[in-house]
Design goal:
- The chain is mainly alpha-helical.
- The protein has 6 helices and no strands.
- It starts with a helix and ends with a helix.
């Protein structure tokens, strides 16, 4: 009878451990998938296991979302929250925080704009090399800088062209006047 009792305890403990493991797995998966917390267990031990892993899974997913937002700042010029996070305010906040915390992006934008503005003096390939991880963003701001430079060059050319014309006319008028 003692052997039966020991065997029963061992079997019961194994089954309980298996149920706890399953509750933990389900809790982690539900938390990671941002499923609304709804503990499906009535047993306190299983409920605690589920709840503890749910929190771990949920926090892991929020950290992954924040990192995704951080990386999106390299690709997107403006913050655009993906549709899959629009139903969850905490996920939207984490994505936004990650996007806004990427301080390197402001420097990339400034450098790309300046490189584009001085495109006549810069080698674009060499200038863009350090920013391969943010190629789309770099290209966008490089082109903006280049467009602004071309706009300004045109204004200067028009201004100097009319000034040059005026100078030539004035020179000829003065030359005629001296001859008289």
């Amino acid at each position: 009878q003692e052997a039966f009792s020991n065997g029963h305890k061992i079997g019961f403990n194994r089954k309980t451990d298996e149920l706890i493991r399953l509750a933990e797995e389900q809790g982690y998966q539900d938390g990671y998938n941002l499923v609304e917390k709804n503990t499906p267990y009535t047993d306190d031990t299983l409920q605690e296991a589920y709840d503890a892993e749910y929190i771990i899974g949920y926090n892991s997913k929020l950290a992954a979302i924040k990192k995704e937002g951080f990386n999106a700042a390299y690709k997107d010029n403006e913050l655009t929250i993906p549709n899959k996070y629009k139903n969850n305010t905490e996920a939207m906040a984490q994505y936004t925080d990650g996007f806004n915390e990427n301080s390197e992006v402001a420097q990339i934008k400034e450098d790309a704009y300046n490189d584009g503005f001085w495109f006549l003096l810069n080698n674009k390939v060499k200038a863009a090399a350090p920013y391969e991880h943010a190629n789309t963003l770099y290209e966008l701001h490089y082109e903006r800088g280049k467009e602004e430079a071309i706009r300004r060059y045109k204004i200067i050319a028009k201004g100097s062209g009319s000034t040059l014309t005026l100078s030539i006319v004035a020179f000829h008028l003065l030359k005629r006047r001296r001859k008289k």
